Amino acid sequence: MNYKVVSLTIISAFSLLTACSANEVNSKEPLLLSDNNLVQLSDIDAREQLTVLKDGLYFAEDSTYSEDGWKNTVTLEIKDGIITTIEFNSINETATEDKRTLSQTDEYLMSDADTESLKWHEQIEKLESYIINNQDTSAIQTTEDGKTDTISGVTISVTPFLQLMNTALADGPIEKGNYQDGHYYAEQETFTDGYKYNINLIVENGYIVAAHWDAIKEDDNLTSGHSTEEIQNWNHQAQLLESYLINIQDPTLITYNEDNKTDAISGVTIEVNQFIELVIQALASGPTID
To answer: What's the domain count of the chain?
Structure first.
């Protein structure tokens, strides 16, 4: 599931015909796509090319994790020509946590926030409310670091989330996937060659959006038999496997030979059977209950 970042504009055609306020959006008129921020139709140059946005579910995610291990996501729905719901979030690279939930339970605190600052999820909710209420982001002025003074109380960088929303809208509506949303986990019952493998998955909108394959050691002395380079190589190949799974969404499509190795994924030479079996087991067990 790859997404390209495109800067777009969503506008309400009804605003050309009436003097309605920013919060008054005609639900019978379609949203339109231009080539800049969300604006009202009256502010658009007539020479700009517009494309009608379809009703449906839209989703986008960052293609990579940030240096501190987070990947942003956005889910929004357009119904009767307007954005009715939108949710921004961030998923941890371990595929175990999302930033919104951690913020709500005070397990994620922004390092640069003072005691009077809103929590991360509260700031995200303010951004979401602004988009729902206005159907227009042209008034959101941002600085070079992506921050804005337009929305009171919002001190986080908003540009990455607005760009991601535009990516989702550019890609078009999606169908819900086959899996139930939530966090999935499975681990081997016994150690294999001194390691017990486990898998964490996160599903959003029915699709696997994050996967993390790892192992715990039976004996701390096991590291003596593996160099740092070997461990880094295994981790790199595990990440290739995880990315491949997210792209194809079905672990049963990953084939392997009698040596438990696969030719389907370039750069992967490690045994893959444990990975495939654990993903199948986790998905079959259903989401975990916190």
So the answer is: 2
pLDDT of residue 10: 39
Residue 86 belongs to what H/E stretch? strand 82-92
- Identify whether residues 162 and 107 lie together within a single domain: yes
Examine the domain organization and report whether 243 and 280 are in the same domain.
Answer: yes
Which residues form the domain of 194?
182-285
List the CATH number of the domain containing 248.
3.90.1010.20
The answer as to whether 38 is a domain residue is yes
Q: Which two tokens stand for residue 55?
A: 């009703």
Amino acid 53: pLDDT: 79
Written in H, E and C, the secondary structure of 47-69 is CCCCEECCCEEEEEECCCCCCCC
For position 47, what pLDDT does the model report?
Answer: 43
- CA-wise closest residue to 60 among 183, 207, 179, 180: 207
State the 10-residue block means of pLDDT for the chain, 290 residues long: 39 32 42 50 48 87 94 95 94 94 92 76 96 85 91 94 92 95 95 90 97 87 64 93 97 96 95 96 91
Asked whether residue 176 is domain-assigned, the answer is no
Q: How far is Cα 202 from Cα 288, in angstroms, rounded to an integer?
A: 10
126/68 same-domain check:
yes
CA distance 76 to 83: 7
Nearest one of 93, 239, 48 to 231, comparing CA atoms: 239
| Local structure of 92: helix, strand or coil | strand
142 close to 159: Cβ distance less than 8 angstroms? yes
184 contacts: CB under 8 Å, gap ≥ 6 = 199, 200, 201, 202, 203, 282, 283, 285, 286, 287, 288
